[in-house]
Amino acid sequence: MRDAAFLAFVKLLPKKPLSRLVGTATRVDGLQGAHQAAIRTFCKQYDVAVDEAELPLEAYPSFGAFFTRKLKPGLRPIAPGERVPVSPVDGAVSQAGVAEAGRLIQAKGRDYSLAALLGDSEEAERFAGGAYATLYLSPRDYHRIHAPLDGTILGYRYVPGHLWPVNRPSVRGVPELFAVNERVIIWMDTPVGRVAVIAVGATCVGRIRLSFDDLVTNSGGPPSRVRYDLPRPIAKGAELGMFEMGSTVILVFEPGKVALDSSLVPDAPVRLGQAIGHSIG
């Protein structure tokens, strides 16, 4: 009942304009006192690990700068092994498993298709039957996204869409949530084959920003697809992009390439650089 009431309320909200407004407010110049008050209130409310931030709180000129903060160097060691995928984010497992018949589990009783998620039926065929992991970033988490393996970035697809929240009520109640929300799909070639890293936007996620290209989402731009003539090399653990509010990252692997660790069960915490599986190919 509570889920239904929450979703009914969110459905009425102008989610994209609201998200842009919130994003702008978190970055506006000249209000450092207000930003500092917001940062400290936020940290207390969500029990943020402020000791992990690269800079002291007072060094951040805006709430947005704090939200996209870097971690102290060396704080998240990257598990070794060129064929050992690692978590690209700090967060918690929403779902993990195998995309049987090209379907991914969203929540109990709900699934959705790889083709809809990737916006590309040909790419979806490549990944059907492969392992996947859906990782949720809460407000308290570090919000940068990193490469799960060494490899090369082949390109990306930007899919404009809705901005439903990605919290539990929405995941349980909104059909094909991750396939209808705004998202960026990053394609990588790695020692365990092709990997898709999908950054999914959400309400009040003002923007998803790539670190290796100039894409910034939720700015009114059209859908786009970029394929690099010269794929861009990237090291495991190197930065791919960031959320300018919390959301979800989905990893998808080719079939027969990766077995996920048995610890990846719903609500299990994960940390950037933590080994999440091993090669079986």
From TrEMBL:
Keywords: Cell membrane, Decarboxylase, Lipid biosynthesis, Lipid metabolism, Lyase, Membrane, Phospholipid biosynthesis, Phospholipid metabolism, Pyruvate, Zymogen. InterPro entries: PS_Dcarbxylase, PSD-B, PSD_type1_pro. It catalyses: a 1,2-diacyl-sn-glycero-3-phospho-L-serine + H(+) = a 1,2-diacyl-sn-glycero-3-phosphoethanolamine + CO2. GO terms for biological process: phosphatidylethanolamine biosynthetic process. One of its GO terms (molecular function) is phosphatidylserine decarboxylase activity. Binds 1 pyruvoyl group covalently per subunit. Its EC number is 4.1.1.65. Pathway: Phospholipid metabolism; phosphatidylethanolamine biosynthesis; phosphatidylethanolamine from CDP-diacylglycerol: step 2/2; Lipid metabolism. The active site is at 90 (charge relay system), 146 (charge relay system), 247 (charge relay system), 247 (schiff-base intermediate with substrate). It holds the Pfam family PS_Dcarbxylase. Catalyzes the formation of phosphatidylethanolamine (PtdEtn) from phosphatidylserine (PtdSer). Belongs to the phosphatidylserine decarboxylase family. PSD-B subfamily. Prokaryotic type I sub-subfamily. This is Phosphatidylserine decarboxylase proenzyme. It comes from Vulgatibacter incomptus.
